[in-house]
Design a protein that fits this description.
- This protein is α+β, with helices and mostly antiparallel strands.
- The chain has eleven helices and 21 strands.
- The strands form five sheets. Strands 1, 6, 9, 10, 11 and 13 form a six-stranded mixed beta sheet that branches. Strands 2, 5, 7, 8, 12 and 14 form a six-stranded antiparallel beta sheet that branches. Strands 16-15-17-18-21 form a five-stranded parallel beta sheet, with helices on both faces.
- Helix 4 runs parallel beside helix 11, helix 5 runs parallel beside helix 7 and helix 7 crosses helix 9.
- The protein is globular.
- The two termini are 42 Å apart.
């Protein structure tokens, strides 16, 4: 801790956190969660447990005259055997809604994952401190966005002036669910994932339930969406079901209907947007599962390949093209009785021309430039005057 300032320590509580659906008290501080405790209790998948604990879209929000802020956190970082080290997670500072700083925290715990062997080892480490200085000496709204891809326990918040919880901004709440692409994949930082960018451009408050590898039509996820207050809801469905080879077409259609039925139980008239997958050539016409290709690891590149056979579509195996057709059919059918239900083809966010210009580095996940493009396009199409979320930020 720096001693140049007369620090005021404020306990971090749920009142200071936005974008989290649950806050767990830990030995060290608090751990934000993006699924409630009852939903986590119904899950046995380590991938989902990791994804929901990574605070994509979660931020500390407070009002203060402070010119300096310190935050102690205990991150849990991921490392993959045979893969170059991942960069440290990024914390973004926003002051009165504008970018004002970016930093990372060294150290913390490390989970080493061997994808070939299916093993995970954890090395325990210590907390670290991030610091922002030179903030304007006036009343202002401050947000610290936590790393979208790094589990983060929040320990201690220090400022050189008192703080109070941020005021209600009066914006509509947009609740979004999707895969690792919505989670943030290889975005440059937590405020530049495509949902975060779209929320900024649309003038709404984001709750991001993008769950890496885990947009699998789980009933507890549907019930979480049902029970979470929201003014606008979107669900992006498809890629994880294909690359996990989780179900066949016979099960997919009824599962989508059931998922939407559950959401509608809690939000009968809220604008609800179903988004199909963005372009991913390896799975457009080839079913899953997919698997990592380590042949270029020596050059620092990891790619994914589809292991299915296009002929297996006749037996009901899912591809992205099959899923888009089925989602469009389901939404058209339901919209006859549900005028607030809408459909967006994911290729409007990232399609063939985009792949030629900005290819997916590992054949599945967009890079930082593509996240920006997707966020801008989503805002243009969905929050526009004639879009599904028209006047969403009013």
């Amino acid at each position: 801790m720096n001693t140049e300032h007369d620090w005021i320590t404020t306990p971090v509580t749920a009142e200071l956190l936005r974008g989290a659906l649950d806050v767990e008290r830990t030995e060290h501080g608090v751990l934000p969660h993006r699924l409630p405790a009852w939903a986590r209790a119904q899950n046995t998948d380590a991938q989902l447990a990791m994804a929901e604990s990574q605070p994509s879209g979660v931020r500390l929000a407070f009002r203060t005259r402070a010119t300096a802020v310190e935050l102690d956190t205990l991150p849990t970082k991921r490392a993959y055997v045979g893969v170059p080290p991942r960069p440290d997670g990024v914390y973004d500072l926003m002051v009165d809604g504008r970018p004002a700083g970016r930093t990372s925290v060294k150290g913390g715990n490390t989970q080493t994952i061997d994808m070939a062997a299916g093993t995970l080892e954890t090395q325990v480490g210590g907390p670290g401190t991030l610091r922002f200085t030179g903030l304007p000496e006036r009343d202002k709204d401050v947000e610290i966005w936590l790393p979208h891809n790094e589990t983060t326990e929040v320990l201690v918040l220090r400022t050189d002036a008192p703080i109070e919880p941020a005021r209600d901004p009066g914006r509509k709440v947009w609740l979004h669910h999707g895969s690792s692409i919505s989670h943030g994949s290889d975005a440059a930082g937590p405020t530049t994932t495509w949902p975060a960018l779209a929320a900024t451009l649309g003038g709404v408050e984001l709750i991001n339930l993008g769950l890496a590898g885990s947009a699998l039509l789980d009933p507890f996820t549907a019930r979480t969406l049902r029970d979470t207050p929201a003014d606008l809801i979107s669900v992006k469905i498809g890629i994880n079901l294909v690359n996990a080879d989780l179900m066949r077409l016979r099960a997919f259609g009824p599962a989508v209907h059931g998922f939407l039925d559950t959401v509608r139980e809690g939000h009968p008239t809220v604008p609800l947007l179903v988004v199909s997958p963005i372009l991913a050539p390896i799975h457009e016409d080839t079913p899953g599962p997919c698997f990592p290709d380590f042949s270029e690891i020596g050059e620092g590149r990891l790619r994914f390949q589809a292991a299915g056979d296009p002929a297996e579509r006749a037996q009901g195996k899912l591809t992205l093209a099959v899923i888009r057709d089925e989602l469009a059919r389901i939404v058209e059918q339901r919209a006859a009785d549900d005028p607030n239900l809408h459909y967006l083809d994911g290729r409007a966010l990232y399609g063939e021309a985009d792949y030629a210009e900005l290819p997916l580095p590992d054949e599945l996940h967009p890079d930082a430039a593509t996240h920006r493009r997707m966020g801008e396009r989503f805002a243009e199409r969905v929050f526009a005057d004639d879009g599904p979320f028209s006047n969403g930020g009013a």
